[in-house]
Specification:
By secondary structure, the protein is mainly alpha-helical. It has helices at about 1-10, 20-45, 45-50, 70-80, 85, 90-105, 125-130, 150-155, 180-195, 200-210, 220-230, 240-260, 265-290, 295-310, 315-330, 335-345. The chain is globular and about 65 Å long.
Length: about 350
């Protein structure tokens, strides 16, 4: 995204603002103001809510919730940030300020910090943000700020945490399936079905650009029944639990390796390794739900892993193993699939 901001600055900047104490202060206030409206619109416009909803699905509230950010949300957010280089703030100033905006919210996603006294008047505190993540009716659509709470107070969206109203986290209408794909795309499916059923151009546009209130909550249950054929929550065998844990650790290890050495790898390695990580996340979600489509994705995932290892370590033997593995997949696909499900006990109950 940084390259996009540099491109906007070099080609479309209205002014060329120099860095000094006052411009840093103005930039900080401007970015926090933009964040407020980006965040508020992400709750008030269906298309933007579809990108942001993953962040609010968790029924727990801790530091990990801060990491529930989708690529779609990053793209929409960047469109708001584009106003910064457009006005003429240089990219290095923008990078520094956005780094602060990226780090600060992490610490507001916690239940361990109580009221912070006088700081509650000016800053977004964990107490303020707990309210934002709550599905209690009294707390809905409140406290959108990122660092400063003044915007919520100014635009009428502020409420403090009430002792007599403990926060309940998650969506007002929870999802009942937890695969990676469903978590990311369920609201787009809901918009699509609502759009199909809406009568007239105006009503169809409301399903896309209107508020989440315009989408009937029953549609989610209907889609889950259609797509998952009424499958019930599964009881996991011990072998499956161990396998999921192992695959999660393997995926996290490779992701850590990516973060450390990504700059030293070729594009093809990054694409293949990224494909393995994406397939792993989807596959783990499918395993938790005992989905039938897991095995072919598992084979693709292992194929990508072997190919990545072969390319990374420049091993001819590794590439030969990749070819052999692909051949074995083709020849013994069916018996391997049966054995895979039997060992992990993936039969639906």
């Amino acid at each position: 995204m940084l390259l996009f901001f540099v491109w906007v600055y070099q080609n479309f900047a209205i002014f060329h603002i120099e860095a000094n104490v006052w411009t840093w202060v103005v930039l900080f206030l401007f970015t926090d103001f933009l964040w407020y409206w980006y965040h508020r619109y992400s709750h008030e416009i269906n298309l933007l809510w579809a990108a942001h909803v993953v962040h609010h699905q968790s029924e727990d509230y801790n530091f990990t919730v801060a990491a529930r950010i989708t690529i779609f949300q990053a793209v929409f957010r960047s469109l708001f940030w584009a106003f910064i280089p457009l006005l003429g703030f240089p990219p290095f100033m923008m990078t520094a300020i956005l780094l602060i905006h990226g780090v600060y919210p992490f610490f507001s996603h916690t239940q361990t910090v109580g009221n912070l006294g006088i700081l509650e008047r000016l800053f977004v505190t964990p107490s303020h943000h707990r309210v934002h993540h709550s599905s209690n009716e009294i707390y809905l659509d409140k406290n959108y700020g990122d660092i400063l709470i003044i915007w919520d107070k100014l635009f009428g969206t502020f409420i403090s945490e009430q002792k007599e109203e403990p926060c309940v986290y998650g969506l007002t209408k929870p999802i009942h399936r937890y695969t990676f794909l469903w978590q990311h795309f369920h609201y787009l499916f809901e918009i699509g079905l609502s759009f199909k059923r809406a009568k007239g151009f105006r009503n169809k546009m409301r399903t896309i650009f209107g508020k989440p209130d315009d989408i009937q909550p029953e549609i989610r249950e209907e889609l889950e029944e259609r797509i998952f054929a009424g499958a019930k929550p599964q009881v996991h065998a011990q072998a499956l639990s161990r396998y999921i844990f192992f695959q999660s650790m393997l995926t996290m290890t490779l992701l850590f390796f990516f973060l450390l050495y990504g700059n030293y790898q070729q594009l093809i390695q990054l694409v293949i390794g990224g494909g393995f990580i994406l397939c792993s996340v989807i596959c783990i979600g499918g395993l938790l739900e005992h989905e039938d489509w897991v095995f072919p994705l598992e084979m693709l995932r292992l194929f990508l892993l072997l190919l990545y290892i072969g390319l990374t370590f420049y091993s001819p033997l590794g590439l030969v193993l990749v070819g052999c593995f692909a051949l074995i997949q083709l020849i013994f696909y069916r018996p391997l699939a049966v054995r895979y499900k039997k060992v992990l006990r993936l039969e639906r109950r």
